[in-house]
Amino acid sequence: MEFIGPDADTWDRLAAHSQNIFQTRDFAEAWWSVYQPHGEMVVLTDRADDPRCILPLYRRGKAVPLIRQIGHGPADELGPLAAPDDRHLAAELLRSELGRDLRRGVLVLHDAPVEAEWTDRLDGGLIRTTPSPIVDLSMGGWDEFLASRSRSFRKEIRHQRNRIERDFEMTIRTSTQETLEEDLTTLFRLHRLRWGAEAPFAKGEQAALARRFARHCIDRDRLRLTVMELNGRPAAALLGLRFAGVHSSWQSGRDPEFDQYSVGSVLLMDGLRTAAADGAREYRLLRGGESYKNRLADQSRDTCTLTVSSGPAGAAATRIAQARRSLERLVHERRESRSRKSSEPRNGAS
């Protein structure tokens, strides 16, 4: 199916209001091309010329329509595309264009920014919230960033890098048009080494999406894929993105054989240094509450997933999704508890 909707310049102009690269037309087109969902594309705009609001959706099912946003899953943040003063247009669009569908079915809005108050604006049912930590770089360059951190932090990052340079010949190189495909293959391999052979990002549709989107990004100077090599051997890779004055860390990988050298941390610091030199005001660590993100972040741009419906079928779907989310959270907490207990020292052993 041919991709529809406003042109890339119009689309990206609205995406720039949230400084969110996952709202660009390049990402939406890449996602649609790779996933090819069985459904009808529905791209809503408040007006045909110079729209102030875009809602890129697709619809499945007739008796009980399920409407979702294009890009859900791999995108760390989505939501309607609109300037802050025009966010009310999203609710008006949904009511005027999807009223009949929402009486019989449900819209699932994935990973919309909490700060935009989409739950209240759309009168939606909250399914989950997800932390999305941010490192503040608004104080200026790299030296100013380091000055804003504790003495122990500065000492630690110097020690980590010095230790690697003492024991290895370290190079950190940035992908070019010529090296991109090979570097992505290296990233996927290192990602599987870190997260296991079945890690979703490094196989199947997600890997195909990452490749397609990376090609678009490198053409538009929006990609910073870096590979750390120690004595010529890839040890870590970081897939960074930049858009509208914001840098982000999307995915990474590392060889566990080098974990004692904190190669992932050193490569992330290199990304932060580059973002500061580029004049970025923030570095987004994106979706997830991992401990390293919480230690590094100054603030969080949390996202939420919500359902919107005006009929009994949608209300029932919301209750089921909320119950499923509660069960998933309970299972996760029990696994974490068992993991902590199994790692505790026994009989005084450490």
TrEMBL record:
One of its GO terms (molecular function) is transferase activity. It comes from Brevibacterium antiquum CNRZ 918. Residues 326-344 have a biased composition (Basic and acidic residues). Residues 326-350 are annotated as: Disordered. Residues 151-293 form the BioF2-like acetyltransferase domain. This is Acetyltransferase involved in cellulose biosynthesis, CelD/BcsL family. It comes from the Bacteria. InterPro entries: Acyl_CoA_acyltransferase, BioF2-like_GNAT_dom. Keywords: Transferase. The lineage of its organism: Bacteria, Bacillati, Actinomycetota, Actinomycetes, Micrococcales.
